[in-house]
């Protein structure tokens, strides 16, 4: 074969190869276009579910990223899929787990309170009285609470055993103001008045009772601080001033008087009073007659603060339980009590 013919054969072979390559390229390109019609590129815009548009990948709203597995989801109408800047109803988005990567969902924290404060309704006609066992001494009468005609205040009229008049609402976190006025009577006295927090309706007969008592003792000439009310049991001296005590079980009158936890058949150890704090300014000072004292308090599970006429007198941290608010009286006739809400 001469050189000219050999060259012709070689050129023909090259042309054939080029034609084959072109045909393969066309075929492969056609298949690639078909694939593009089925699956979206992996760099597509993420789908965002929110009540407002979002443009930040660090948003705390629930975000679902789209993936190359979109073709495996259940039927989704194109009218429910919008760009990331358009609001989308969550009810129209399929929940197929294969299209939601587990690392792409962020749950926003809950910060709003679901239980807003509702002030209690002040209605003294719905309160109830309770008293510890009557004392045999002829100078002491059963507790007698006298509701005023306007029903806005109540007065303990007798020189009585430890007695309570408790609310129909819980005291913890309640924003209320207690007003107490020791009135001058025909026979002036110098004993206890105050209020209790966290008390339960049956606590005067409950050996498991556990509540807080804020009480105030005065001292006037002719009256003794030493008393012995019950037997068996030791008498003792009361402390003048305002104090906070924890009441447990069923204390005797002597234990209320002295703020002690005595051990006797009438009140075994663990059923008495434990003094927790004395007032900063009034801890050793008596009250005065015909002055309406305004008590405000902040009471929750771990803290109690008591203000008297706007001055912080008691502040203590401990573990407290919820219960009722109660007016308290022990051996002081003619004390008027009332309760109001801030701003009224």
Considering the chains and any ligands shown, give keywords for the structure.
Jelly Rolls; seven-stranded antiparallel beta sheet; 28% strand; 2 helices; alpha+beta; 344 residues
Question: In words, what does this structure look like?
Answer:
The protein is of the alpha+beta class and about 350 residues long. The protein has a domain at about 125-340: Jelly Rolls, CATH 2.60.120. About 10% of the residues lie in helices and about 30% in strands. The protein contains two helices and 18 strands. It has helices spanning about 5-40, 255-260, and strands spanning about 45-50, 65, 130, 145, 155, 165-170, 175-180, 190-200, 210-215, 225, 235, 240-250, 275-280, 295-300, 305-310, 310-315, 325-330, 335-340. Strands 3-6-17-8-9-12-13 form a seven-stranded antiparallel beta sheet. The protein is rod-shaped. The protein starts with a helix and ends with a strand.
What is the chain-wise order of helices and strands?
HEEEEEEEEEEEEHEEEEEE
In the sheet with the most strands, the strands line up as 3-6-17-8-9-12-13
The global form is rod-shaped
CATH topology of the domain at 124-340: Jelly Rolls
Rg (CA only): 41 Å
Q: Report mean pLDDT, rounded to a whole number.
A: 79
Report the total helices: 2
Give the low-confidence spans.
35-113
Class by SSE composition? alpha+beta
The count of DSSP E runs of length 2 or more, i.e. the number of strands, is 18
Strand content: 25-35%
Largest β sheet strand count, sense and barrel closure: 7 strands, antiparallel
Question: Which architecture of the domain at 124-340 does the CATH hierarchy give at level 2?
Answer: Sandwich
- Assign a percent range to the helix content: 10-25%
